[in-house]
Design a protein that fits this description.
The complex is a heterotrimer. Chain A is an alpha/beta fold. Chain A has a single domain, classed as P-loop containing nucleotide triphosphate hydrolases (Rossmann fold), CATH 3.40.50. Chain A is built from 9 helices and 11 strands. Chain A is globular. The termini of chain A are far apart. By secondary structure, chain B is mainly alpha-helical. Helix content of chain B is 82%, strand content 0%. Chain C has a single domain, classed as Orthogonal Bundle (ABC transporter involved in vitamin B12 uptake, BtuC). In chain C, α2 packs antiparallel against α11. The longest helix of chain C is centred in the middle third of the chain and has 42 residues, at 173-214. Chain C is globular, with a radius of gyration of 20 Å. Classes of the chains: A alpha/beta, B mainly alpha, C mainly alpha. Chains B and C meet through α3, α5, α6, α10 and α12 of B and α3, α5, α6, α10 and α12 of C.
């Protein structure tokens, strides 16, 4: 059965390579059920690279990454990835429900079609993000925030233990933001872990209890209260961080 | 109307030609949906150039042109992957050299024959009016095979077209899916070579699907529309070239006429699209 | 060597040889700019688009260069207009317009007698039937193109590497782009008797790409590329005469073979030397030659 304490994601002094060159190094930390980690750092810091490594898409050249105690590639069925909505073609002929159903494809398997249970799971995932009435709308006619919610619903439909999100709040309106946060909260309550790359420090505070600071190497990993400090932020953002009086730090928007 | 659309097909050779272009319209339209959604028109065009020598070699050796085309199609896929890895030479330049050299190989081989010019023309532009029963059977078999594969892999192919990062994250090997699609395209080229030739087959693949994309909101309806337009273009094109040659004594190449009709249908769809847009906007809450 | 000399003793053979050298050399020079500005795909499309323009011009008795040029411009405008619409991506737009234009050209030709032979000549060339008038045209075009390229050399090179820099210096960037595109189009049309519209892009790309595998300096590339182009022309022509196969296609195969061989053996940029050095192929573009 596995111990109750087994972390969902365990990264031990890992370095990830892109094209044989290490891009991010010395990442170390664990994420357990119900926890949520924000990956914070400037552009090119290695946030997306680390996410790809957790998905098993990039090689780990030093140390290790384990998902549910296994290699990332073998644990993919338990991991869901939420990309940024604006990377997808808004003119693509597909409905919101069809996008969410894509999350069930691995379960459905090759050749077979979606069963009633799959459709039900897709509909309830859409409901979890507040978009049940837009199920048959074409994905592209929805607003940016709604599209992001649909992509989260797709991940929910996968019934994952670990969720990886890439800048989920970029260009998202306030209503969608709240719905996204609520859905993520519900997932955490059900025992899933969340890792999200973001450069919105305010949202990191709202959505996550831990933070991993990256700038091609790990600057810090720990509870957000003690790790998101001005000095560590300055170390993360280098010249892009400006200290104000006391503890306030301004980070230039990348 | 019947004079145009029905009368020409009282003759057996015209009936066979019609059946052939109908089958091709469905086959190329269905595959074309994925070529258009994944913006692969250039890759598909490359495949038609590189599969050409394979067809010629097989023809000269009296072997199955299907195998010749497949062999060269696979070779292309491998070379394309290799080109991407060597960055000193840009992808574009290497691709252009690959295309033209393969094509030249085919031309050189055909030119050994005294009937070079007419042979080359047939390979490149087809001669649909000489289609016989054996050709029809082969086209039907290929159509059934390709459509079966498309139906089986439909959801994965759509996912890969819509969200390649998401597909990879779910563990799908996009390289394999891409290879399968390339093989399907090569099969369409083989099926079409007798009717419209390797140069014009790209039109059968891209144009109906591009037109359908303008009007359809789902992959299913886009596929249906692409097949319908492909069939309509084939039918109308054949009928038109027949009527023009019989009534006005001007001989128009059938394959080329079909393509011109398809492009006209595309332009019609392009003009209708804005109206569709308006309708969609009104339905939107 | 006497085999080579013997091959070129007939009158038509000498004309073909001259044409092969001129076209190979011209394409070699223009090809350097095609690569610098990453125009191979566009050039392929232009080659396909030029075909109906040439056919139309020939049928109407209009000057080929004019007809082809105008048609080429028309096609570019159509592609741009179509690609700007929603749900029509650039590659599909090019596919649709080129398919239509090509089919149109075939249609026009098919209505004439001697269809297959003319079609073949336009598509893959017919260098052995080159006439003195064609030679004169090629020479004139080559002279004009070389003069334009020489005059605009600095601006074209700068524009390839730093468009905004060129604009900042006050140069009409768009006009220079158009000038180069016209040069490419004119070169394409001039190459038709030798290699036809489909294969012309090979002579524009392969010798230049091969030269870039051997040298980093622009000046050296501008010398090596036409030499390789002319050499491909001569060798290809000789081989085609010997084996009695299509000349244009053979010339292209020779150019491609030179490229393929260089890809493997060229020092520094070839695969063999890089594998030996244990490095992955570099992504650098050649630096502009200060002396040029």
């Amino acid at each position: 059965m596995g111990s109750e304490q087994q972390p969902l994601l365990a990264i031990r002094h890992a370095a990830v390579a892109y094209d044989r060159l290490p891009v991010v190094e010395d990442v170390d930390g664990t994420v357990g059920p119900g926890q949520s980690v924000a990956l914070i750092g400037p552009n090119g810091a290695g946030k997306s690279t680390l996410i790809k490594a957790v998905l098993g898409l990039l090689p780990v050249v030093r140390g290790s990454i384990e998902v549910l105690g296994r290699s990332p590639a073998s644990a993919r069925s338990e991991v869901a990835y939420v990309p940024q909505a604006d990377t997808l073609d808004p003119e693509f002929p597909v409905s919101a429900l069809q996008v969410v159903l894509m999350g069930r494809y691995r379960r459905i398997g090759w050749v077979r079609r979606a069963a009633r249970a799959d459709r039900a799971a897709a509909r309830s995932a859409l409901e979890a993000v507040g978009l049940s009435e837009r199920a048959s709308a074409r994905f592209g006619v929805l607003s940016g925030g709604q599209r992001q919610r649909v992509l989260l619903a797709r991940a929910i439909a996968q019934e994952p233990r670990l969720l990886l999100l890439d800048e989920p709040f970029n260009g998202v309106d306030a209503v969608s933001q709240d719905l996204l946060l609520a859905a993520l909260q519900r997932l955490r309550a059900e025992g899933a872990a969340v890792v999200m790359a973001t450069h919105d420090l305010g949202l990191a505070h709202l959505a996550c209890d831990e933070v991993c600071l990256l700038n091609r190497h790990q600057v810090g990993f720990g509870p957000i209260g003690t790790t998101l400090t001005p000095e560590l932020l300055r170390a993360t953002y280098g010249g892009q961080a400006l200290a104000l009086r006391g503890d306030a730090v301004i980070v230039a928007k990348p | 109307m019947t004079e145009l659309l029905v009368d020409p097909f009282r003759l057996p050779y015209m009936q066979r030609a019609l059946l052939e272009v109908v089958l091709l319209g469905v086959l190329a339209g269905a595959v074309g949906v994925f070529v258009v959604l994944r913006r692969l028109a250039f890759v598909a065009d490359a495949l038609t150039h590189t599969v050409f020598p394979g067809i010629v070699i097989a023809f000269l050796l009296d072997q199955s042109i299907l195998l010749g085309a497949l062999a060269f199609g696979l070779l292309t896929a491998v070379l394309l992957a290799g080109i991407g890895a060597h960055r000193r030479v840009g992808d574009d330049a290497a691709l252009a050299i690959l295309l033209t050299s393969f094509f030249s190989l085919g031309v050189v081989l055909v030119s050994r024959a005294r009937t070079f010019a007419s042979d080359l023309t047939v390979f490149l532009f087809g001669r649909v009016l000489t289609v016989d029963r054996a050709d029809l059977v082969q086209t039907l078999a290929l159509a059934v095979l390709v459509l079966a594969v498309l139906a089986a892999l439909r959801k994965e192919l759509v996912l890969r077209a819509f969200d390649p990062a998401g597909a990879a994250a779910m563990g799908y090997r996009t390289v394999v899916l891409d290879l399968v699609l390339n093989v399907l395209i090569a099969l369409v080229v083989v099926a079409a070579v007798k009717a419209v030739g390797t140069v014009l087959v790209i039109a059968l693949i891209v144009v109906p699907a591009a037109a359908a994309r303008l009007l359809a909101d789902r992959v299913a309806s886009m596929t249906a529309l692409a097949c319908l337009l492909g069939v309509a273009g084939g039918w109308l094109g054949l009928a038109t070239s027949y009527r023009v040659s019989v009534d006005h004594g001007v001989r128009l190449a059938s394959g080329a006429t079909i393509v011109v009709v398809l492009v006209a249908l595309f332009l019609a769809a392009a003009s209708a699209a804005p109206l569709r847009r308006l309708a969609e906007g009104m339905v939107r809450r | 060597m006497s085999w080579l000399a013997g091959t070129f003793s007939g009158g038509f053979a000498q004309r073909a040889l001259l044409e092969a050298i001129m076209v190979g050399g011209l394409c070699g020079v223009v090809g350097v700019h095609v690569l610098l500005r990453r125009l191979p795909f566009f050039t392929m499309a232009l080659g396909h688009a030029t075909f109906p323009g040439v056919v139309l011009a020939a049928l109407l008795g209009v000057n080929l260069f004019l007809g082809a040029g105008l048609f080429g411009v028309l096609v570019v405008v159509l592609v741009a207009a179509l690609g700007a619409r929603e749900r029509v991506d650039d590659t599909s737009a090019v596919g649709v317009v080129l398919a239509g234009a090509f089919a149109f050209g075939v249609l026009l030709l098919s209505a004439q007698a001697g269809f297959a032979k003319d079609l073949t000549a336009y598509l893959v060339g017919s260098i052995v039937t080159v006439q003195p008038a064609d030679l004169a045209t090629t020479a004139a075009v080559a002279a004009a193109v070389l003069a334009v390229l020489a005059a605009l050399h600095k601006e074209l090179v700068l524009g390839a590497f730093d468009r905004s820099g060129l604009a900042a210096l006050g140069y009409p960037v768009l006009a220079l782009d158009v000038a180069l595109l016209l040069v490419v189009e004119v070169t394409l049309v001039a190459s038709i008797p030798a290699v036809g519209t489909i294969l012309a892009v090979a002579l524009l790309v392969a010798p230049a790409a091969t030269a870039r595998l051997w040298t980093d300096r622009l000046g050296a590339t501008l010398v090596l590329s036409p030499v390789l182009g002319a050499a491909s022309g001569v060798i290809g022509l000789a081989v085609s005469q010997h084996w009695r196969v299509a000349a244009g296609a053979t010339i292209v195969l020779v150019a491609a073979a030179l490229f393929a061989v260089s890809l493997v053996v060229a020092p520094r940029h070839g695969l063999a030397s890089q594998l030996r050095a244990g490095r992955r192929p570099a992504a650098a573009r050649p630096a502009p030659d200060r002396a040029a």
